[in-house]
Amino acid sequence: MVTDSAQPLKVSVSKPHKILAVRKLKTLNQRTNTAGFVRLALHLVLLGVSGFLWGSLSGWLQLPALLIYGIGLAMMFCPTHECVHRTAFANPKINDVVAWWTGFLSFYNSTFYRQYHKWHHRYTQIAGKDPELDDPNPATLGQYLWRLSGIPWWRDKIIGHLKVALGKVDDCYFLPESSHADVIRSTRLQLAAYLSVTFISSALGHPWLIVIYWLLPLAVGQPFLRFVLIAEHMGCTNNNNPLTNTRTTLTLWPVRFLMWNMPYHAEHHMYPSIPFHALPSAHQSLRAYFTRVDSGYVGVNRAIIAGLD
Description:
The protein is mainly α.
């Protein structure tokens, strides 16, 4: 039973399933196509409206439209994440298709990311095993700002996609050999799709279309995505304790909406099988167990900065 104490209860990290009653977990694990399609449709409507305003308005009115469009575009990573877990929809094939296309929009390859992210969950915050720790956390303010700029992300994504497309995957320790062919094929298809869009738009007399409606907005939105993602584990313990190695951040509804409830990140790491729409309910049952339930991304990032050299 969850208590009202703010301190985490002493629970065996080897048996996290003991925290939630089987009946409660079974209820939370219910997946539905409806919730996934509604959230995806609303996310796409936001992109459509803000993208239209970005392209049609003039002067300073373009700036808020570009900001909203860019953030929404970068946050397309969030449905990719949910669908990679195959929890956003009840139908596995729908999860895979949506993961690929939202990854296409956010410059992630879902086939690659599924393997990468599986390893991250298996070895969360374990140095040498968690691939997210292959890029060290910032230790200085300069490194923090460099991370938030998104420039390292662009560099790593471009180099990484090209390497995989060329078949150079042997140094990706988190990719089982059985996945190599699928990952290479999927990445090649994605890069070919980008080239096709560029070629077609140029042939139709719009050579800057992909820059105006994808590259520039995504570059604008990336710092905001980095700002929230850095809060997931930085400042938490570097061990395999799911009660202490992941942070849940209590934030505003628009942020939770665009992030597909990823701010409930400790709950997600404790029970990855719980779909995004059930995470708020899971939070009510689990919050007393976690050491890092913090208020607001601004406050979390201030604390992170305060701890830098």
